[in-house]
Amino acid sequence: MPMVKINGFNMNYRLEGEGDKTLVILNGIMMSADSWAGLVPSFVRNGYRVLTLDFRDQGKSQPSPEAYKIGQHAEDLKALLELLEIKCCSLLGISYGGQVAMLFALKYPQLLESLILANTMARMSNHLKAIGAAWDEAAKLKDGKSFLRLAMPIIYSQCFYSRSYEWLQAREEALGGSLTSEWFEAFQRLSSSHGDYDLVEELEKIKLPTLIIASDQDAITPYEEQLLIHRKVKASSFVVIPESGHASCYEKPQEFILLVLGFLAALSNRHE
């Protein structure tokens, strides 16, 4: 994956496909560009050029030497799009990435054709703050396996645990040993960047065609939080993936892919 200097730090990104339209995907807080490897080929086969990237403090991108606000990622994304000469794109963000996507849509709507928000939130509810505080305490242990044992049951649904328990155990084992002290320090900077994030009163300014993807068993960003976004963003559609938790792109990848492609296809047909 290429590495470029963006706003003073080295950003890792991957641009795949030869399509006329570009889909940009933004990660959840514990994800990286590599997390989308199982989904990107489907988007590419359907004619999209797909840009995945690691925020500062994520994946292979450079760690930040200091704290920052979540809005910094929107500025980093704008600089990357300018460097790659991407003048307009559809923007998909999940969880933390969805928060960044909304900030970007509010500040740079002229660079977007559409917006896709999955398992995300427009505000830091007290419940979400409590989950974040618990994860921060677990991160201070700097023990990967212990951290994942505490975090994963909140991220994934009961249904997914029932049907994919061996996969979850294997993932816990594989990832647990790879989480370094530096990873935990970076995670805590990302986590603290939320601050008092609250866009609820700003959402009506988003006029872009928007798809909101919720899950019926999402314990982190419950259905009601995403329904709130739908009610505020007038040009939005709202769908719920059944028997799925916060990590809908992992739990129900085919449903997730079809929802995104269906939304983008409908948008293209509308413009023809």
Task: Summarize it.
The protein has 272 residues and is of the alpha/beta class. It is 44% helix and 18% strand. The longest helix has 19 residues, at 253-271.
Overall average residue pLDDT: 95
Number of helices: 11
Q: Name the CATH superfamily assignment.
A: Alpha/Beta hydrolase fold, catalytic domain
- Rg of Cα set: 17 Å
**Multimerization state:** single chain
What's the main sheet like?
A: 8 strands, mixed
Side by side, the strands of the main sheet go: 1-2-4-3-5-6-7-8
Helix/strand structural class: alpha/beta
CATH topology: Rossmann fold
CATH architecture: 3-Layer(aba) Sandwich
CATH class: Alpha Beta
Helix content: 40-55%
Q: DSSP strand (E) fraction?
A: 15-25%
What's the β-strand tally?
8
**Total domain units:** 1
